Amino acid sequence: MKKKVTFILRLTAAIVTISAILIFSPWQEALYSLSPLPATVQEQVDDAVDQGIDGIIVYIQKAENAPELYASGWHDREALRPASPNALFKIASIGKLYKASATAKLVASGELALDETLAHYLPDLAARIAYADEITLRMLVQHRSGIPNFTDHKDFDWATQSLDALDMVLDSPADFKPDSDYRYSNTNYLLLGKIMDSVLGYDHTQYIQAQILDPLNLTQTFFSVNDVDLDRLMSGYHIGHETDFKTLEQGYVATAQDVGIFLRALNDGTLFTDTEQALYSSLYEYEHTGWVLGHSSRAHYFKDIDTVVIQFVNTTGDDTIILTKIIYDRIIKILKKRS
């Protein structure tokens, strides 16, 4: 009887999963997600390009094993340069993990306080941000501030660098009262950077360099496209446009291996002291995705197989968010089958 119930539950779960894929995904992606898995990660990476991706990089590191690096497609399709697993890439919102880690370290050292307010740290902005005297540092880190997301503003353009992102949301009504809800907002981390700059008395990226990147020997992580050799930076494409968007200034740049090393240290605790670890575990996530024009990324740790998997894809637009998630999930299934 128990075996029969278990079988029925598994069958029901499978039907629900397949139905959700078929209902909510475009039919091509739905069919692809259900197609047979290839035998190897490299075959899956190559197949991703066959699905319309310009270029892809995958980093895998299991337990104490040496990392595995894969690439397929184009690093630069105009120059016909093949993708390299050691290329630099814009990691977008994965950079929030670095900022959140720096925040935990500064709180542990007493330089920041999680329950201190935005108005206290940035008094010049207090009158221009709703509830600034109630929004705490903790709420900024956890996306519970209610401050509008500047990338959702009607005038925001991913392809334009002349916009003042913060100015777009100043004097705007809050999305909700502080700590009454959750809504992801890039503005939170823009302000978090400004708070760290103010408290430190210098650019917070210098602190991240000294306290996070240097101890982990992350020599291939940078804070701007202006800090790197652009030939090493993977091109970025958006469906329907011929433009290569890689020269746009869109935040952190790193190799997949550097991101993988950081994510391993974040998850196994070696990035922190015990006090810092306790603080971080109450604050933010241990994995992240990233998206900017032409570049999408995924960084996750899978405890059940003790494996870090980083995926970079240099094609955005249309249904690529769904497609790249399906590709990533298929890679994870391959890894779990071989574990």
UniProtKB/TrEMBL annotation:
InterPro entries: Beta-lactam-related, Beta-lactam/transpept-like, Diverse_Enzym_Activities. Pfam families: Beta-lactamase. Signal peptide: none annotated. Keywords: Membrane, Transmembrane, Transmembrane helix. Residues 50-282 form the Beta-lactamase-related domain. Gene3D superfamilies: DD-peptidase/beta-lactamase superfamily (3.40.710.10). The chain crosses the membrane at residues 7-27. This is CubicO group peptidase (Beta-lactamase class C family).
